[in-house]
Amino acid sequence: MAKPVKKTERNLFDEIDLKIMLIGEQIKNHQQSIEKAMKMGGLNGPSGISGIDYSREPTKSVHLSFDEVLPMIQLDYERIKKLKKERTELKKSKKRIEKIYKSLDGVESKVYYLRIICKMTQEAAADEMGFSCRHFQRIEYGMRERGLL
Questions:
Q1: Residue 101: how many CB atoms within 10 A of its CB?
Q2: Among candidates 94, 130, 93, 96, which has minimal Cα distance to 111?
Q3: Which of 45, 115, 119, 148 is deepest in the core (most CB within 10 A)?
């Protein structure tokens, strides 16, 4: 027997927050990659060495040359920079959407909420508000003319 599908409301703010969180995780992964590359290239210095344990068997470890490590580190730094810029843009976009939404009132506020924040189609949003599709389009057109959509 099929399980009932749980319909969750889509929300633009939740999607932006999720993207920001995922970008944060990607940045963390690139930082860990930089640390690992530095360790493999021996670039983090002797600070971690406290003594030599002669009782253990020698193990095969990967050691990379400076010429191999440097491009890897630079690539990760570039990706981190790009991700931070993307995260900043998402935060600005979220603030802009919130500012526009808070500045509206009445019917336009509801139209903006349903179309932009909840990402509903024109037909679904018009049905939700009890308007004809054509009347809803007129309201949207007026908002577009003023740069709100």
A1: 17
A2: 130
A3: 115
Q: 104: which 2 tokens?
A: 């509206």
Interatomic CA distance for residues 120 and 86, integer angstroms: 25
Report the mean per-residue pLDDT for the chain: 83
Residues 140 and 103 sit within 8 Å (Cβ to Cβ): no
Tell me: the pLDDT tens digits for 49-93? 555 545 555 556 667 777 888 888 999 999 999 999 999 999 999
Tokens linked to 130: 């009890």
Q: 132, 126 in Cβ contact below 8 A?
A: yes
Name the token pair of 88: 């900043």
Tell me the C-alpha distance between 131 and 105, whole Å. Answer: 17
